[in-house]
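Bug #77: duplicate submission created two jobs. Keeping one. Sequence:
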Amino acid sequence: MKNLSVSEFAKLMDVSPVTVYRWIDKGKVNFITELIDDREVKRIIVTDDVINSNKHVLNSNNEHVKTINKPVITEIQPEENTSNENVNSTNNNTQLLQLLNKMYEDFSKIADDNRYLAELAGQTKLLTDSEEKTKEQFFQLVQENKTLIKLNSKLEVENELLKEKIDHIQKELEKRHQIHTPLWEKINKPRKL
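Kept job's structure:
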């Protein structure tokens, strides 16, 4: 068995790489994913007889190319000799294949669970980040509110001072007006009882 790149496998099968990717999506070929320079690169797992024949059309049984991410496990054919040792070996090999397939199914379930948990962790992180941002915005608004309250207090004090100045100026103006008021206006002015 060999691992071929998508383009190598496409040339071997005399199809385009797009077709190979479709086969991967449909589960018609077995592949592994390698991480190269932070990129996931798919490599097709192919049996030697497919490589040697140079052309092979995928049949519905997928005898030579297995399903997605499933380990390529071929059955071990017993030799012509039918001794007890070979029969026991074949039974052991069959049991081993069943065990490996069961392990693969278990690992697949674990991988699915891990993907689900990773997705939940990502969603939790987003919610936490959003909550942290909301808290930051809240504290920012509280600080702005405190600043506005201080500014409002200063404005009220300044307003009171201005009122006092205006009252003082009005009193001064009234005094000046009384000083310059002719005597006859003061006399003719009705008195309050």
